[in-house]
Every structure is written in C-alpha cells, then in structure tokens.
Amino acid sequence: MLNVQTFTFNPFQENCYVLYDDTKEAVIIDPGCYAKEEQETLKQFLQSNDLRPVRLLNTHCHIDHVLGNFFINQNYGLPLEIHPKDEPVLMAVGSYASNYGFPAYTPCKAEKYLEEGDKVTFGETDLEVIWVPGHAPGHVVFYHPESKTCIGGDTLFQGSIGRTDLPGGDHQTLLDAIKAKLFTLPDDVKVHPGHGPATLIGHEKIHNPFVGKNAQF
C-alpha cells in the first residue's frame, strides 16, 4: 500500500512529499525545507515512522522545491535525481537564492537523471516518470497507477496551472503537455500538486479555467 505524507514548507508554501509503502522504504520528493525547524519536522516524521529514505527526487528545480536537497543528501546519503533538461534551472538557484531571502541555501548537484518512461522503484512500489514541460523545461511528475496517485509538482493545480513566465517556461507547451500527458490518465487519479490542495484529473478536465472543457484563458 502506498502512503503519501505532505509537508508544506518555506514562504512559498511548497508541498514536499514523502511516499512510502509497507516495506518502510521511502522516497522524498521536492524537499523545500529551508528552516531548521522544517528540516527537523521532516526528520522526526521519518524517525517516528521507522522509515528508510532511499531516493531523493525533484519534479523540477525552481528554488522553492530544492531548498532542502542538500540537507537530505547529507543526512541520508541520497543522490539527487532530476530530469536532465532541468539541470540549468537547478544550477541557477545559487545565483539568486539570497535575493529571495535564502542566504544559507547550499547547492546540491544532480547525480542521477530521470527520463520519460523510467520507473522509480522503492520497496514494493514502482512510480512512472512522465515528462510534463512548460512550467520548467525538465518538469516531471510521478504516477502510481495502482493507487491512482500522481505527484504533479507545478503542472496542474486545483483550478489552475503552473506559471509559465519564469526562464524556460512556455504557456502553450504546458497546456499541450497537461492535455496529452495528464488528461489521458483516469478521471479518478488524485493529483498532489506542488502548492495547495489535491485535486482529481476528472474535475480539472471539466472545471479548470485554463485547460478544462470550458477553459476561459
């Protein structure tokens, strides 16, 4: 059974996810924990549930999703895994972190790369890697068909989509990718986004004002 634990970290209110199954192996996705208190919250959850982190994943590499990469890498010895097209996005964070109020940000280099169609395996669980560019050039989502769970990063939100005005973003690319890659998933798939509450594919196909049936934008 796949379990999904959500933490909301840093001033951007970014959602970090810990996924784990009955084997107690876990993956950490988008650790935005910057403050010591946030890092301790995540660490205590792992300890209290006797979880063993085995993989460190980023859906994409904007600053709010990568602030805790170094902390996880150093504390658990996990190599950072990203899509190769997002490596320039990751490398750029150090140049502007202080301007955004994160002077203590420590970069963490990617050591492994994820491509469309790859499987992220931990315990008894396989996650499918789906490339959904537009918000960021190397943005991926992680999909678990058995539980109909999708860790969507900043692609599709409840009633919205990821912004596309940052370097490497493209509005039409994101719209097309959501329709081709996410809206082809079953309607009852639950999307856990990078910000805000979870939503269902079927709901967004109808009601999302950007990509839904009656899109307004």
UniProtKB/TrEMBL annotation:
Assigned keywords, A-Z: Hydrolase, Metal-binding, Zinc
Cofactor names: Zn(2+)
Pfam families referenced in this protein's UniProt entry, alphabetically: Lactamase_B
Domain of life of the source: Bacteria
Gene3D superfamilies xref list: Ribonuclease Z/Hydroxyacylglutathione hydrolase-like
Location of the Metallo-beta-lactamase domain: 13-195
GO molecular function: hydrolase activity; metal ion binding
UniProt-recorded name of the protein: Zn-dependent hydrolase, glyoxylase
Organism: Echinicola vietnamensis (strain DSM 17526 / LMG 23754 / KMM 6221)
Phylogenetic placement of the source organism: Bacteria, Pseudomonadati, Bacteroidota, Cytophagia, Cytophagales
